[in-house]
Design a protein that fits this description.
Strand content: 15-25%
Bound molecules: uridine-5'-diphosphate, magnesium ion
Strand order of the largest sheet: 7-5-6-4-1-2-3-8
Structural class: alpha/beta
Order of helices and strands: EHEHEHEHEHEHHEHHHE
Distance between the termini: 14 Å
CATH topology of the largest domain: Spore Coat Polysaccharide Biosynthesis Protein SpsA, Chain A
Low-confidence stretches: 312-317
Largest sheet: 8 strands, mixed
Number of helices: 10
CATH superfamily of the largest domain: Spore Coat Polysaccharide Biosynthesis Protein SpsA, Chain A
Length: about 325
């Protein structure tokens, strides 16, 4: 098996068939064997029925992993990687925003360049609104400052890589998975190619603004311990200010006999320090919560059932 496509699907009923057709079209002339590994991430629409039909047609090697509920795209990617048997593995969305033809180009790059182990597509021009673009750019700036590994702005989960990369990614046992970070962390030479995001074929995006914020926080907490050090810096800074203020007050009182009105100062200080302490507690809580969840050693996903079409078939033939 030359190539496995891992496709996370959540409520993609109307996209499954068009995606399948596009994929078969893109690879059938390539002369190598490929498989489609669909992961049904607890869809509430007819996605599973559509996938089942594809499996029963037995025209192409198709595997369907059916989750017991929605575990999120990261869990779906993990499950897909575990089942993929290809020499090369590609991650691609089911909504045709990322064209399967580009996967063929990525595979060709891996064929030609032995020195590269991974090909990642990045968005040259972002299609989202200005606000969202601004938030994403700044997220990358901040996370790159905080972490030792590099996050490339605009780089997506749309990538094709060799088996050694997949094995390395699977060897990380974390339950709170942040793919962008994991792929940077495992290393390997990566080739970046620009691509343009197409319009969604059908349905809508599952990422609301707050879901993205949560995802961004999860990325920062998973790959950096810098936020934990903020307390130390702030503590030092506030203590220095307090000492400076104390000296000023003593001098004012003893040397110049100026009365210091205490009430507003106390309120401001209580609020400021109270706020800072709560914030720092919150940051500590983020780390403790993640340690706690990891300590439970729950599986990343629960599989309800698995369907496969016949093995050993030539893709699209
Ligand atoms: N997805 C998933 N589980 C989720 C959310 C999304 O498997 O909980 C899949 C979804 O079906 C799609 C891919 O992840 O194939 C990307 O999702 P989406 O298109 O909503 O994200 P966007 O392209 O807007 O970033
Ligand atoms: Mg999409």
């Amino acid at each position: 098996m030359k190539l496995s496509l891992v496709i996370p699907c959540y409520n993609e009923e109307l996209n499954i068939r068009p995606f399948y057709d596009a994929a078969v079209n893109a690879f059938s002339g390539m002369g190598y064997r490929f498989e489609l590994v669909f992961v049904n991430d607890g869809s509430k629409d007819g996605t599973y029925q559509e996938l089942k039909k594809l499996c029963e047609e037995k025209k192409t090697a198709v595997t369907v992993l059916n989750f017991s509920r929605n575990f999120g795209k990261e869990a779906a990617i993990y499950a897909g990687l575990q089942s993929a048997r290809g020499e090369y593995i590609a991650l691609i969305d089911a909504d045709l925003q990322q064209r399967p033809e580009i996967v063929a180009q990525m595979a060709a790059i891996l064929d030609e360049h032995e020195e590269y182990d991974c090909v990642t597509a990045y968005q040259e021009y972002r299609k989202e609104g200005r606000m969202m673009g601004w938030f994403k750019d700044n997220f990358y700036k901040i996370i790159n400052k905080m972490c030792d590994i590099e996050f490339v702005s605009g780089a997506s989960d749309f990538r094709t890589f060799r088996r050694c990369v997949a094995d390395a990614v699977l060897s990380l046992p974390e339950c709170d998975r942040f793919s962008k970070g994991i792929f940077s962390w495992v290393g390997f030479e990566t080739f970046y190619i620009p691509y343009t995001v197409e319009e969604r074929y059908a349905g809508e995006t599952k990422w609301s603004f707050w879901k993205l914020v949560k995802y961004a926080v999860s990325g920062m907490v998973s790959f950096s311990t810098f936020p934990l050090k903020i307390a130390t810096f702030m503590g030092g800074f506030v203590s220095a200010l307090a000492i400076f203020y104390m000296i000023t007050v003593v001098i004012q009182k003893l040397v110049f006999s100026i009365d210091i009105p205490g009430y507003p100062t106390i309120i401001v200080l209580i609020l400021l320090l109270g706020g800072l302490q709560l914030m720092i507690l919150g940051i500590l809580g983020e780390y403790i919560a993640r340690g706690y969840m990891q300590g439970k050693k729950r599986p990343v996903y629960v599989l309800k059932n698995k369907l496969t079409s016949d093995d050993g078939m030539d893709g699209g033939q």
